[in-house]
Design goal:
The chain is of the alpha+beta class. Among the domains are: 39 residues; 66 residues, Alpha-Beta Complex (Type Iii Antifreeze Protein Isoform Hplc 12), CATH 3.90.1210.10. It has one helix and six strands, in the order αββββββ. The longest helix has 38 residues. The protein is rod-shaped and about 130 Å long. The chain starts with a helix and ends with a strand.
């Protein structure tokens, strides 16, 4: 009976050692995969806080975060020096990568216009500005009401024509 007990203990120890070696091998593979994944990362510039449209980017607005090579968006920057001093064309949310397509070099209204768009300044006072109901960044259409001159007795009505349209 003692021989059977010894054999059972030896078999249990043997299988325990095999299980321990299997766990060790599995963990070693997981560590190697994690290290390989860490080596396949690259730094990407992200917004530390929300950067509103038209803002000049300063160093306190951006930071660097490691991204997996496979998940880096097109046009991402790898250093803050590449981004600092540029102007944001569209709002960048906190934690979002700063992309080349969302930045501009020029100041003023031109940075907000995409190719093919035009801008026109229209003088607005309290009457034409609808008593303050129109605010900066509102989208408006400019409509001209015209009364054509008549050459005869026939009464001409008014004509309305869209002069500027904000699509």
């Amino acid at each position: 009976m003692q021989n059977r007990l010894r054999i059972a203990i030896l078999v249990a120890v043997f299988f325990g050692m095999i299980a321990a070696y299997g766990i060790y091998s599995f963990l070693r593979q997981q560590r190697a995969a994690l290290e390989a994944m860490q080596h396949s990362t690259r730094d990407v510039v992200v917004a530390v806080k929300e950067i509103p449209q038209g803002t000049l980017i300063s160093d306190d607005m951006i930071g660097v975060v490691p991204y997996l090579q496979t998940s880096i968006p097109t046009g991402a920057f790898s250093s803050t020096q590449q981004v600092s001093g540029k102007i944001v064309r569209t709002t960048v949310a906190a934690g979002e990568p700063v992309l080349e397509s969302r930045l501009g070099e020029k100041a003023g209204l031109t940075v907000l216009l995409t190719p093919g768009q035009r801008a026109m300044a229209v003088r607005v006072d309290e009457i034409t500005g609808v008593s303050g109901f129109i605010a900066p960044n509102d989208r408006v259409d400019v409509i001209a009401n015209l009364t054509p001159s008549t050459s005869g007795d026939a009464e001409a009505g008014q004509i309305a024509k869209i002069v500027l349209q904000n699509k």
